[in-house]
Amino acid sequence: MSQTDAGRRGENPTVPVLQVRDLEVTFPSEAGPVRAVRGLSFDVSAGESMAIVGESGSGKSVTSLAIMGLHPATTRISGSIKLSGEELLGRSDADMSRLRGRKLAMVFQDPLSALTPVYTIGDQITETIQAHFDVPKAKAWSRAIELLDLVGIPNPRERVKSFPFEFSGGMRQRVMIAMAIANDPDVIIADEPTTALDVTIQAQVLEVLKKAQQETGAAIIMITHDLGIVAGMADRVTVMYAGRPVEQGGLDDIFYRPRMPYTIGLLGTVPRLDATDTGPLPVLEGNPPSVVDLPPGCPFEPRCPMAIEVCRVSEPPLLATDGPGHVAACHRVETVIQESLTHAEIFPAPTIAESALAHVPRSERPVVLELTGLKRHYPLMKGAIYRRRIGTVHAVDGIDLELRTGETLGLVGESGCGKSTTLLEILNLGTPTNGSITVLGKDTRRLGRRERKALRRNLQVVFQDPMASLDPRMPIFDIIAEPMGVHGYPKPEIEARVSELLQLVGLEPSHADRYPQHFSGGQRQRIGIARALSVEPKLMVLDEPVSALDVSIQAGIINLLEDLQARLGLSYLFVAHDLAVIRHIADRVAVMYLGHIVEEGSVEAVYSAPTHPYTQALMSAIPIPDPETERSRQRIMLTGDLPSPADPPSGCTFRTRCPTYALLPEADQGRCRTVEPVLESWGEDHRAACHFARPLTLV
Hints:
- The chain is an alpha/beta fold.
- It is built from 26 helices and 24 strands.
- The protein is globular.
């Protein structure tokens, strides 16, 4: 930040803009006091970015709300939080309201919930400005337009009059950032600001955050579970576990020289876009402890392979390691340093069964799913009393896919590209608008009721949200047994199979009488997998099965799916927006855009040299948990949002956002506008639909 900025702020450059010391946050509960944050200390200077990482329940968001003064009155908070040297703890809500939005700003995880739906975007930004400054409405309105332009909202003079529901998720998050920087704050807290966004929109939002920091000189506290984002955004990192910091240091220290086994485990469990090893992922076994009544000793001890007797007796303090400003809370720090232990040595990857089909060529395996020219169009209707058709929604517009026995096909693309519609068409086993769906050799257009029910037994699904997909009123025995009852399994066989399935997915059979709320997120997803396996299917559709899970739990689910596939000869249609997960688990990948497949082939061919500009943009947007790689990576930023499938562009549907199109001469642009590209071969098992495709190495 410039001297002018520092002077304008009235800052002392020797004093951090935010100082947190020995922060303790405790909530009352029926089970006892919940010690959500225990002894957290850190400093953040102007223009600096600090990331707080850790699993769900580690105290990250609780810390942010304590800084903002947003906890209820029943919360007990102690320690010290100083903003530019002034103490915040103990201030009244009226005092904090004068700081919130002025010196302290927050970007929340869900922008739709954070924005008021009945007020325009402009009204909400001007309210933020006028709450702290006595300026005319017209001046505040002009400032709102400037802010929308700054964060990349197209046509800001018109969009400032729009309501939140008229914006996409990524645009709403940009509005939240615009509101956060409206009054030139000293500190911006971003609490999981990209969790629900597509990777391309995520990349845009992160760029906007960086630009906002450059404009305001603010300190940023980034709360996230995505270590790739941390590698590209942070200067320093605080790792939290069971409510307390267990490691703190500079970005390179944490990523290249971690000293706490928990940090080492977190970094090792993340699937990487640049990884070539597709073996099983290291796993952090177990779950974080409850912070209601912590036992003595290190909270991480039950999950730590390096634990010794002293770890069970006393909780280690944060002590200096071998780097300046690098501290870790572990009794075994010296051992980690002296022996240079890696995650592979501390958390060895589990053994996964080898598939009987591993050495069978793909061409010799039976086809379990085939889509030929699949189309699903919906009528676009208007009118409440007299309904009339005014157009057509081209949700899926002619795709060909093939999945063979024992194979995993990854289906990727942004929200609205047609992935979910494709899944529904397959799962419904009905008649599409056009084209055909063949499951296990049977054309779904010709199925009778009895044949359709029999085929459903071989086609099962695992949903994205494990809690929403399990009936909270049913014990897990009944949840897993229900599909078997529908398909006529005898009762003695059902009881034996439920116990067998629980063991197969790594759960205790004795817990069969418990309800879903008694299990963690990862365990609930295992229950969903057990239910899908109950009727011995041959094809499983996996709809974002790990996106709602912590990275440590995600690794265990990915390993489980690979192991089950090898043992049972399953075929997976795996839908995800995380291309790093797809690289690890899939054999082949298909990239969708606006109802079309724009690139498909083997994972190795597509990832090593993506040829379609859209695939290249998707891959460049995936953050990699490696600071050096993030600093030097080539980024391809897409502008704008996905066009409406009710009014797709002519010719190449991607041309309105394509960075290649913008550089073409007029004659070539005319071809893109008028001629729809078809999938053409770019090598063995690799095709792309682009008139001007070219291979590009990104990582």
